[in-house]
Design a protein that fits this description.
Layout lengths: L4 H15 L7 H14 L5 H10 L1 H11 L11 H17 L5 E7 L5 H11 L7 E8 L2 H9 L1 E2 L9 H7 E5 L2 E4 L1 H4 L2 E5 L13 E6 L8 H14 E9 L8 H4 L1 E4 L2 E3 L3
Parallel strand pairs: 1-2, 1-7, 2-6, 7-8
Antiparallel strand pairs: 3-5, 4-5, 8-10, 9-10
Helix pairs in contact: 3-4, 5-6
Bound molecules: S-adenosylmethionine.
Length: about 270
Amino acid sequence: MELLKEDFDKIQKQIISFYGINLSRKYELVKNRLTTFAIDEKYNNLHEFIEEINKNPFLYKELVNRLTTNYTYFFREREHFEILKKVIIPKLIMGNPNNLKIKIWSAGCSKGNEAYSIAIALEEILGLKMNYSIYGTDISTKVLNFANKGLYTKEDLKKVENNRIEKYFKKVKEDKFQVIDNLMKKVYFSELNLMLPFNPFFNNFNVIFCRNVMIYFPLDIKLKLINKFYNALQPGGYLIIGKSEILPGIKNKFKLVQQSVYRKEL
Ligand SMILES: C[S@@+](CC[C@H](N)C(=O)[O-])C[C@H]1O[C@@H](n2cnc3c(N)ncnc32)[C@H](O)[C@@H]1O
């Protein structure tokens, strides 16, 4: 199906201003995903379909589901889970040995793999006597539904060691493994657009993971978001970004701990 230049421009401008995602150089991707979406909804003209999407909030939500890139896997960028276990949590405990409840945010959590990997890493800290909660948020309702079920295939778990699978997943049917209840009840998923002001509940975090999300955002939006994360962290809290991400200006606010790991000063 044909995607008119003016329709493409309109959609990509909306997506960047509502969600921060820069699709201006992704004409082919937008066209292909819109075409599949139109076929599924029984339309054969993209111009008419786009007009309908703009009138219908349900179709608009589905458009967001279709245009986001949700690639993720368990223990992606493993070093981050090691530093969480070996450096960050011990430091947080030392700072507050008596009454610590760890609050961690997986911002742009996709299908939940990151949030559950964090939960597994925390469970593995020997002698850990602390409460923790993990909040996973995303704009895609499709991935959030997936994350809430905590159901994964063998393929999804291919980078997870067998002993971790045995301990933290239960086989529910052929090729379906579910995160165990004890972990599921510590991880909460909800819809949240990082472009909007954060709900007041999203504050006082000890650690924020926002990995491989801001890569799609223009620099001005990245800088605003870094400020918002700074305000949402407790003093002494950590921000972890993707290892390949470059965020000029981040060092004005945060102290660099190691590549892609930053700390808000106490
Ligand atoms: C590539 S995935 C990264 C998942 C995970 N953090 C990781 O590193 O494996 C990026 C996720 O960010 C989400 N995202 C993009 N823009 C967002 C926004 N404005 N607010 C919240 N989530 C957003 C996408 O829906 C997608 O699921």
